[in-house]
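User: Can you help me understand a structure? I only have the sequence.
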Amino acid sequence: MFRKLLDKVGVGWIFLAIVIVIYGLLGVMNYALFEKAVLAFWNLLLKVLPVLGLVFGIMFLADLFLTPERIIKYLGEGSGIKGWVLMILGGILSTGPIYMWYPLLSDLKEKGMKNSLIATFLYNRAVKIPLLPMMIYYFGWVFVIILTTYMVVFSVINGLIVGKISR
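Assistant: Let's start by predicting it. Here is the structure, written out as tokens:
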């Protein structure tokens, strides 16, 4: 019986219903804690919503303009140096929590993007442009240039390794 309900309604909706029931019980038993939990959820939602909107906007534009043929051309097996450069720059320029980028990367993978380029994108997320001035202040130009260069170079090496292993 529970399996039929799962198949008919879906795990996501059942999980949402359970969370709502738990919040309702918490509201009845300890209203102050309930209020604190709802406020924490609201604050988290306000932080995540702009990034989520950005990612879904990019996904929308990707669905409009990126056909599987284009993705294979620029990010597929024959993409060459263009694909690597796009993923390095994309990883460095991407903002927000990493888990927000997973749906877009999954969508691109389904359309033909190489695993090696996904790994390179994720690796380059560690290079944070807004933090570079602070790094330069604390560690100096030479250190930051060397570290950033190593991160970019090793992102490509990491991508190549992931590409070989995942075949």
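Now, to help you interpret it: DSSP finds nine helices and no strands in the chain. The mean pLDDT is 86. Let me know which part you'd like to focus on.
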